[in-house]
Amino acid sequence: MELNTQSDWVARSLRSVWHPCTQMQHHETIPLIPVSRGKGAWLYDHEGRRYLDAISSWWVNLFGHANPRINAALKDQLDTLEHAMLAGFTHEPVIELSEKLSALTGHVLGHSFYASDGASAVEIALKMSFHSWRNNGHADKQEFVCLKGSYHGETIGALAVTDVALFKDAYGPLLRASQTVMSPDWRAAADGETPQDVARRAAAHVERLFLERGDKIAAIIIEPLVQCATGMAMHDPLYLQLVRALCDQHKVHLILDEIAVGCGRTGTFFACEQAGVWPDFLCLSKGISGGYLPLSLVMTRDAIYQAFYSNDVTRGFLHSHSYTGNPLACRAALATLQIFEEDGILNANRVKAARLTKALQPLAQHEQVRNFRQRGMIWAFDAIDAPQDFSRRFFATATEHELLMRPIGATVYMMPPYLLSDEEIDGLAANTLAVFNQVMAG
Description:
alpha/beta, seven-stranded mixed β-sheet
């Protein structure tokens, strides 16, 4: 007889599922949490315990689990068209989504190319950049530049422009070399320096590299305003302005990876809006489908598109996968954009952000905390003298306080859904403080 107890679900998963970004042996001491359902900002296990999803299930869930409006859109789409290949065919959801996203950029980025996940979007942008230079007679432009501490995905091309040793070192022999420049992370400020000073110093590093190798460099890739996976490293928008100008001057493409920081996460729909610049390629994923279905895309300019427009098949961008532009995923994205528009989400988020920032002040002023920081709907702080197993201990302790949180090293961060109530905001702040005190005391 098959059992359906909590422990049975865990045992079955450990026997058959290889979990991502996980050393599986750790689950000998830190049990898996089998999720039975979700509602709003909460996830529930099979024994009825609940967990506030303070990290939006890896930064994807914007408007809560089982959102009735997104649910309704998907149910309607299921009765119309679940999937059709996008080579030689098209359909209403992918057209409408592309048009709406283009309009959000003032039609500067007028062409969208679709994939399923963030790393794939980065791969597409890298390939498009190189191939467009080659089509335009600059085949020597084959190098890419990334920031120190950058993370852009774990496929081979994306990993080549990632600078997180934990993910990259084991696969080094497989990767194409890239150039790494200084991060504009304002935590690196010297005495008397402002975040803008750090931005200028980091941009000067880019300028030196471009002067030396600009004729070989195809593109620089940046996660604008917040480098998430390296520990929520935040920088001033001035850096994007300076690098955009350098890219124009030295004929280097600017790729902005907004996979995690787009869709309102930093306070504007696109993070780069705060710098008043647009890239040559913009990568979106995670929140674009509201956390419902795998979807990513690369938006680019007409000049890039025209570099591939030809009767010659070899000049075309021959990248694909079977589920490109899936109608269900596109419909989820359209429902997500509709909620942004109808509910005034960006303005509402400013109110929620101010409340949570105020509620987190006991942590911001904590003697064992440094670098408390916030940008839009992202909060982070660094633990001073954290124990070696801080991240795992914090995760386990947080679940005892009805929280789903997953620190990056000694950095605790929050990226909650956009629908938190005042009560949930206050509870998140109070419980995070309690968990932090317990872990640091332990």
